[in-house]
Structures are given as C-alpha cells and as structure tokens.
From TrEMBL:
Residues 333-407 form the ACT domain. Keywords: Lyase, Pyridoxal phosphate. The keyword Transmembrane does not apply. This is L-threonine ammonia-lyase.
C-alpha cells in the first residue's frame, strides 16, 4: 500500500484501492451527456458533476483517502492543511466525521462561501498569506510547533489516488470516451485521473486546462516562462508552484495543457447555469471553457469534462451572469446627448418601446458633463433579445436624430 511519504508513481491498483476506501462515504456522481452543449461545441460532451458532492467539490475523495490512512495516534494529534477552499472543505468535513481535529490555513481573498463552509464543518480556519505558497510556509512551521500531520492538497500519493477515482467512474459510465478534459491547479486531480484512465484505456487523451493568469503546470511541462499574476475567477486552480510528484505524472501521462482566459471562464460558468441549470465555480468550469474556446480540437469526439466544484459566492454569480448578458448584447448601457427640454425623454422611451427594447435603468446628467448648458446626458441601461436586436435599436435611435453610443 502507498505511504504518504512515497514519491513513486501512483498506479491503477492504488486508485482502485482508494475507490474501496471511500465507497459509501463519497458520492458516485452522475456522468451525463449534455446534448445541447454538444451541439454548441460540435462533439459529444459528457459532464462529471463533482459540483454535486456534499461539499460541492471533488476534493472529498483525496481528503478521505488520506485521512483513512492515519494511525490512531496521528488522528489524535490532528491534521493541518493549506487550501484555497475546496481541499479545506473536504478535509474539514471528513475530519469531523472521523473525529480528527483539523486546522485549515487559507489565503487572503478566498471566497467567503468557502471560508464559512469550512468553519461550519468544525475546522479551525486561519487566514494567512496572499498565495498558497505563503500559506504553505506557515503551515510547515505551525505543523512542527503543534505536532500536527500536514496533508498536502495535491502533492501526496494518497490524495492523487483518491482523486483518480473520478477517472474510474467516468470510464465505467462512458467507456467510449475519447478525451478527458481536466482542470489543473497543483495537478493532483489530473494526475490521478490520467493514471487510472491511461491504464484502463491507453488510447484515451487526457487534456489539462489552466487559467491563463496561472499557467504553472503549463510552464513546468512545456518549458515556458509565462507570468503568473492577478485575480482569477478560477481561484481554485490559481497555484504558482505545482507539485513535484504531480509534475512528473503530468509530464508522463497528460497529452496537452490548454490555457483559458478570464472571459472564457466567465462564459463557461454562465453557460452551465443557463443550459445545464448547474452552478459551477470558475475552476470547475475551466474544462468547458477550453472546449468552447477551441471546438475544432474536440470536433466529432466523445469528450468527458470534470465539473470539479460549485463553491462560488452568489454575488460573484450575479456579476458573471450580468457581464455575460452584456457580452451577448442582451444588456447594454447607452449614452445619448439630448436637448434639455420637455418631451425628449418621452420620445426616447417611446422609440425604445416600439423597437421592443426594455428600459432597466434611467439617469440624467446635467452637471458633470462637457455638453452645452442647454443639453443633457441621458444614460440608459436597456435589455434586448440579442446583438442583432441591439444593432437595430441603435440604428432606429440614430435615424430619429439621437446621438447615441454604447458606454
């Protein structure tokens, strides 16, 4: 049996053993075909709904497999881990179930929903450092001071084997899959899935996806030196330093790594809510973002996507959805320069109504503008059916003599 300190490659037998350890304690999530998304992407798409786990994250799998390997003496001492949120929740939930004290260190900027859920599961939560790397430095010293067992979120063979059970389940549910598309942060998930999938079906391709802002594994495997910086919607995979064990496995078994932009991640989150009626966080939507961004890469293939988690703040969901409406031309802010006299606002409103546009917000600006004193700036937020409808509305405003622009 694998020991936590081993640095040998994880095997299919280890993944199968992990499946036995977690059976009955972690959900076997659905792996369902999305016909609508498949039509959009030009392939057959199968979604693995790990966002529907009890803690809304696949991380339960590796966390439970690792905790079950602790001795009685180690369980009494307790565990410590650093996490941007999902490993934290998986660890806290199963540690509480098993009666193991847990301390979780999370970076500043971790979504509040992840912090509160972790606390709700009974863990002690410490918010320290700007990044996981800074968290890790504290975790190592804190573990030594308090004699705690450090559980790494991805660079641990037992964690990797636990995450690999997803690969077993996907190929059992849909044996004919040609490609698996998997988000990458530190690499634990894709390492486990690739280990299982390549052993079961050597012809299957395993494609990793990283946020363009944090291409750490991409750099490590491809010998690139792309910068890593900024706030990403996919904070769950915003890892600056991939694992040593995981990097070796990814280099050996993963066929390629794709990068996705913030706009592409936002679109994927919004698309999953709109079409699948399922809430997926930025990191969890990265796999769909990659397929939407490069459909030719997956054309006419049977593609499995892992929706890794659903822990996203409701405020952020609202922002993502409204921004997507704006991109689609369904929600637009307009600025019109109009003469400041009675009836002008009514004329604009009548024209918009006849054009089928819905007015959401109205604002007059007379003071803080560079318009003449007898003019006013009229700002509107309008709702239209799509981009073509918006263009028609703008054309009608122009024909009526209004100087209008999108703002």
């Amino acid at each position: 049996m694998l020991k936590p300190s081993d640095t040998t490659a994880v095997t299919l037998a280890d993944v199968r053993r992990a499946a036995g350890v977690i059976r009955g304690q972690v959900m076997v999530t659905a792996c369902n075909e999305s016909r609508t998304l498949g039509e959009i992407c030009g392939c057959r798409l199968f979604l693995k709904f790990e966002n529907l786990q009890f803690t809304a994250t696949f991380k339960e799998r590796g966390a439970l497999n690792r905790l079950q390997a602790l001795s009685a003496e180690e369980r009494k001492r307790g565990v410590i881990a650093m996490s941007a949120g999902n490993h934290a929740q998986g660890m806290a939930y199963h540690a509480k179930r098993l009666g193991i004290p847990a301390t979780i260190v999370m970076p500043i900027g971790t979504p509040m929903v992840k912090i509160e859920n972790t606390r709700r599961h009974g863990a002690e939560v410490l918010i320290i450092g700007q990044t996981l790397d800074e968290c890790f430095a504290f975790v190592k010293s804190h573990a030594a001071e308090r004699d705690l067992i450090l559980v790494h979120p991805y660079d641990d063979p037992l964690i990797i084997a636990g995450q690999g059970t997803i690969g077993l389940e996907m190929l059992e549910a849909v044996p004919e899959l040609d490609i698996l598309v998997v988000p990458i942060g530190g690499g634990g998930l894709i390492s486990g899935i690739a280990t299982a999938a390549k052993a079961l079906k050597p012809s299957v391709q395993v494609i990793g996806v990283q946020a363009q802002l944090y291409p750490s594994m991409y750099n490590a495997v491809k010998g690139a030196n792309l910068p890593m910086r900024g706030d990403t919607l996919a904070e769950g995979i915003a890892v600056k330093s991939p694992g040593a064990i995981t990097t070796k496995i990814v280099r050996d078994l993963v066929d390629d790594i794709l990068l996705v932009s913030e706009d592409q991640i936002e679109r994927a989150v919004a698309t999953l809510i709109s079409i699948e009626k399922t809430v997926v966080e930025g990191a969890g939507a990265a796999s769909l973002a990659a397929v939407l961004a490069a459909p030719e890469r997956f054309a006419d293939r049977k593609v499995g996507l892992v929706l890794t988690g659903g822990n996203i703040d409701t405020r952020l969901i609202a922002s993502v959805l409204t921004r997507e409406l704006a991109r689609e031309g369904r929600l637009t802010q307009l600025a019109l320069d109009i003469v400041d006299r009675p009836g002008q606002l009514a004329a604009v409103c009548d024209l918009l109504a006849s054009a089928g546009a819905n007015i959401i917000e109205v604002s007059h600006q007379r003071t803080f503008s560079d318009l003449p004193a007898k003019a006013t700036l009229l700002e509107l937020v309008i709702e239209t059916r799509d981009r073509a409808h918006l263009e028609d509305v703008l054309a009608q405003l122009g024909t009526a003599g209004f100087a209008v622009r999108e703002s």
